[in-house]
Amino acid sequence: MAPRIQLIHAVSVAQGPIHGAFARLWPEARIADLTEASLAADLAGAGELTDAFTGRMAALIGYGVEAGADGVMFTCSAFGAAIKAARDGVSIPVLKPDEAMIEAALSEGPRIGGLATFAPTIASLAGELAAAAGARGLKPAIDLRHVPGAMEALQLGRGDEHDALIAEAAAEMTGVDVLILAQFSMSGARDAIAEIAGRPVLTAPDEAVKKLRRLLGG
Q1: What Cα–Cα distance (Å) separates residue 98 from each residue in 2, 6, 18, 70, 161?
Q2: Residues 110 and 30 in one domain
Q3: Which of 3, 60, 122, 171 has the smallest set of CB atoms within 10 Å of its CB?
Q4: 71 and 159 share a domain?
Q5: Same domain? 114 vs 173
Q6: Domain check: are 16 and 54 in the same one?
């Protein structure tokens, strides 16, 4: 039987992009969605990840395990440190949203640019990039920027505006070896970004699906 993957979302707009990535890259996988919509609002209110978020991540992982998942994938990039702490000792693969994309980005060159549409993601992503680079003995130059108004536009159904704002921000990041789009919900803007020779654009959903498939031998 094909592996069952528990997807855990903090925002519903992440579902379409990750479903699309599975359809393209691993259509045999059986996916199930769980959305905990209070997470994003609670993090915005708290201003930082606290121990309480680690406990909540552990509970969500536990739900996936109890439901019979072969792997768990989180889709909100702002909770990386809490997910990492919560997954210790779990018997199945648990992926942080951006970890596969970060690994791919570090292989592209020493200058990494990143865009995020949810502001708290910046601190989380910076920490994860630094940790992953340090583990490899690398010291990349990292430039992470928030795209104001893009997430709000997407949540209001204005996808074209969302994509245009991201494309405008990407056009200003020419001096990097790779550009990463932090939010799963940003992947739809990939085609709107003007191509720059030698600067690949990586999306979190595609890289995450590819890594989880490798881990589970799919």
Answers
A1: 24, 16, 12, 19, 24
A2: no
A3: 171
A4: no
A5: yes
A6: yes
Residue with tokens 């994860």, as numbered in its chain? 128
Task: Give CA torsion, residues 211, 27, 58, 34, to 10 deg.
Answer: 150
- For the stretch 112-135, pLDDT in tens is 999 999 998 898 899 999 999 999
Residue with tokens 């693969």: 93
Which residues span the domain enclosing 172?
Answer: 99-203
Q: CA-CA distance, 31 to 69, in Å (whole number)?
A: 9
**Are 43 and 49 contacting, i.e. CB atoms less than 8 angstroms apart?**
yes
pLDDT in tens, 84-104: 999 999 999 999 999 999 999
For the chain, the C-alpha Rg in angstroms (whole number) is 16
> From CA 190, how far away is CA 148, in angstroms rounded?
17
Using a 10 angstrom Cβ sphere, with 0-12 exposed, 13-18 middle and 19 or more buried, the burial of residue 217 is: exposed
DSSP secondary structure letters along 102-166: HHHHHTT-SEEEEEESSTTHHHHHHHHHHHHHHHTT---EEEEEE-TTHHHHHHTT-HHHHHHHH
Cβ-contact 7, 191 below 8 angstroms: no
